[in-house]
Amino acid sequence: METKPTIETVLERLSAMESRSAARESQIISRLEALETQVSGFGARLDALETQVSGFGARFDALEVRVSGVESRLDALETQLKEGFQKVNDGLEIMKYKLEIMTQDIMDVRAAMRKLDRRIPGGLEPSVA
């Protein structure tokens, strides 16, 4: 036969359970407060990181403006160089034609001198001074 616990025993057990529950509740609350502290620390760190990132955005925008300015200056310089090289090439082409004409003129003069040299008896002797 089983004996029924007395009211005192039940109350003692309930009191012990209540003490354990209170201790457990205290532990849980402490852990939650620690987590809350960590989360608020993360929040502050995230805010600081967000501030840094927004600063990077402004700096990137400024850098993009500067790069755009450099790019347009390089485009202008490239255009000037192309025009300059075209002028030099045109000048060289004209010089080539002139050199061809001079070469032909020199050849014509030499041919005329040979023809003249054949017509003069004894040829043209270079004068010795």
Write the SSE topology.
Blueprint: H1 7-119
In oligomeric terms, what are we looking at?
single chain
What share of residues are in beta strands?
A: under 5%
> Which class best fits the helix and strand makeup?
mainly alpha
Tell me how many strands there are: 0
Give helix and strand order, one letter per element, not per position. Answer: H
Overall pLDDT: 87
Query: Sheet bearing the most strands, described?
Result: none
Helix fraction by DSSP (H/I, runs of at least 4) = over 70%
Rg, Cα atoms, Å? 53 Å
Poorly predicted regions are none
How many individual helices? 1
Task: Please tell me what the overall shape is.
Answer: rod-shaped
The first-to-last residue Cα distance is 162 Å
